[in-house]
Predict the structure.
Amino acid sequence: MQLGLYRTTLAAPRLSLVFKVSFLGKMAGTGMRPGRDGNSVNLTNNEQEQPQSRSTSSAAYEEEFPPLSAASSMPQSKRRTRIDLGTPCEQSSEKDVGNIGPPKLEASTSTNHDNDTQLPTSFGKKRLPSPSRNPELHQTYGEAKRSLSSSCGAAADEPFDICLLEATDSSPLESLVNEKNGGMRVQKVQSAEENEQHNDHVEGNDDVLDSVEKNGEVLRPGMLLLKRYIPLSEQVDIVNRCRTLGCGPGGFYRPGFDNGAKMRLYMMCLGLDWNPQTKIYAKRRRHDNATPPDIPSEFSSLVGRVLDYSHTLIKGPFDTINVENVLPSMAPDVCIVNFYNTTGRLGLHQDHDESKESLVKGLPVVSISVGDSAEFLYGDQRDVDKAENVVLESGDVLIFGGESRHIFHGVKRIIPNTAPPPLLEMTKLRPGRLNLTFREY
Ligand SMILES: O=C(O)CCC(=O)C(=O)O
Ligand SMILES: [Fe+2]
């Protein structure tokens, strides 16, 4: 793969550009295709679904857990305990982490779309707390023992708390700023606009919170990586906001499958819910009928800035290029927020459950990483051995749209202890990685 041909770098705010772009003529939304099976479903008013569904292989999202029925017929020594089911990230060996291809126990990929038109059979009935929602089982680390003061996640059947302790107010942030600036008080940047404005004027300022040495790189046509795009202050805001939303209705949960498999991550959707089992977007969650929280306006404006910046990168000195053909703009109405423990991962998959119109236009996915770094794989096929590997660090933004909208991608592993220490200090984010992917349905 001649990625070098596509590389473009832009270090901001110095705006030093190195263009080696030879691909710009071949965009214009070509090569786009809708979902593979094009199945559509008509959903009841109760769920108010968007009428589009496609079948991604469920296997990409599942981990290698046997169905519960299979587990009960296993020898005791091989059975997974209740703890296993709740915390595979902590309990399972990492030997197979490198293999994120098709799981050894291939799950059924057939989706019963008839069922998708119904409310879940459990609707209206009291559910027993599932192991995956028992906070005890998430307590991986020594610190977690002390997390009982956490504002959520301390009682059964409450959402997963991505932070270990009560979130702190702005005082530690300010004290850190004071420390780093020799006692000079720096106002915490609040809004996205203020933040941008601030970033434009911090050249030479090595303040740990807001100094960014942004580096943009075009990985492929329509696929860009913006290194360290998000300043620390904004990363803190993102964690705090996700934490608060994640503790409320429609917050973080650990998606599972009918066969007993569980994803190796915690998920929360904003705007619309995406169900990893049915691959369907809906206004309510299937498992608990909760309505996903709205996307905070700060998040939406961040996505707008990211796309504007990406367009600047793509355009470079070539005024004649229509950047919309290379990377169309979009207004996100969906955000899938994933939290990966340090042994979390996500198999290679395509994001192609959005509307046919969105996919045909190549409306981009904007992916934001906060916390521990991840080894991220991407490629043309669902083949780990042929995939490119890039490390996504805290504050990085990855965009894939246009010709790259259907790229296979996944998270091979989380690299422990790589989150910026001040971020952890200020947010008490658990060990692991927060990822937000914005899309327009
Ligand atoms: O965590 C990531 O970087 C990728 C997440 C992703 O691919 C998804 O949520 O569809
Ligand atoms: Fe994805």
Observations:
- Residues 3-118+127-439 form a domain with the Jelly Rolls fold (CATH 2.60.120.590).
